[in-house]
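Researcher: Please generate the 3D structure of the following complex. Treat every line as part of one assembly.
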Amino acid sequence: MKKFLEIGLGIVTGVGGFLDIGSITTAAQAGALYGFRLAWAIVLGALCIIFLAEQSGRLAAISHRTITDAIRERFGSNYFIVLFGVLGVVMLLVLGAELGGVCIAVEFMTGIDYRWWAVPVALVGWLTIWFGNFAVIEEGVAALGLVTISFAVVAVMLHPDWIDVAKGLLPTTPDHDSARYWFLASNILGASITPYLMFFYSSGAIEDRWDRSHLVMNRIIASLGMGLGAFISVAVLVVAAQVLAPRGIAVDHYAQLGLLMTDALGAAGFWILAVSIAIPCFSTALEVALSVAYMAAQGFGWNGSQNGRPKDNARFCTTYTGAIVIGVLLLLAGVSPVRLTNIAMALTSATLPVAVLPFLFIMNDRSYMKDQRNGWLSNAVVLFTMALACVLAVVTIPLEISSGG
Amino acid sequence: MAADRIDLARDCLDSRVLDPNGEVLGRADGLVLVDTGRGPPRVVAIEIGAVAQARRLSPRIGRWVASLARRFGRADADPWRVAWRDVRLQGGDCHVKIHAEAAPPRAWERFLRARLIGRIWGS
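Model: Done. Output below.
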């Protein structure tokens, strides 16, 4: 019974991990601009993160090491410093975007400009980490994210042409604005294949003391959790294609998202949408802040656990506090949350090889993985998707910047 | 004997350094070898700390981090060394007999606890 409960909570956490401001925004932009045509990118990204999350859990269960531990040990201090520098910048941008997502949702509810909410939202987030243990953050906050199932309900209520939706699951070339199409594809992949998620997942497995007996559970959680998250992301795309595309709305501002659920649910839809954005963004913001702290602690050899008291993990706590402060400063500096989200997701795609390639080496290293090394399919799926996301990002980011998109 | 061989870069450098209670004390950020003139160089110590780590990036960055450490006085400007005879390699980690809490690599931890984190309600 306990195992079933653990799996259920894990799946809920997986959904929460997949859904964030990046996946919601990019799916909505894709649906608004290209109908169902970019659904394939969500499915491909989900497939890749399912493999990566499963591998992250397997590494922790077999070697009792997190990804950061293993990368530091196998690739050395200098590589770790580069990795921490690159991923640190990307994670701080993602953190700013997630906090921005919560603030925008609160703006929907109150009508008060999102910037006014940056400090209160960050303070609530910091207090949740400060007073909560790992389970509270991983399972408690993420469980509230199940409200996002409302996107799937609304998608069904809008009666889309399911044949067209199914066609969108196969990659096609766009009939207009192809640079934007491929930029969005790379954004969607970046929003799905988020390295912070791998680092958080493996840190969580160590905090929860996973061992070999958790391998089956790990597979179920990674597949169903991320799979359900991707399903809801496709639902966001379907809703945006049904509601925003006919009106010619391209989601340049978050205020335009407000219409997503009102066609199907009326005024209540507006409130459900606000909650459906606020909770996953809040939960992801906490996970990203903790991921930065976990990475620093594990890589530099500090004591750092979310299950200990703050004063026993002073450097760890100072790091997540600093990360949250930087995230808030990005918002207060006036960076548009939509722009911040797009930049963060594109940079995530562009920098994927820095984190994923060494990780793949470790997953094939017998001294760490013993009899549980990666099979050819795991390696192939991850390598292909990572390469596609990276190439798309590197090619389309300059085009997007030059077009001022 | 082949069984006694240690690949220092693979089995020791960058490994976690654990105290007798299994607490993380730091990472093996550097190795100290001496050339005795007779036979191959001998390992005499492991180094722990930001300065050792920075020196591996470049000597200039190492000097820069050392001068920062000197200025703020929270850690020694020289990396902390643990004699090789006091290091036991096991399970991919370096085990030492020194307790983490009082060890020099925790200087910043103690400073932040005393001056910042420990003063906040609920810590």
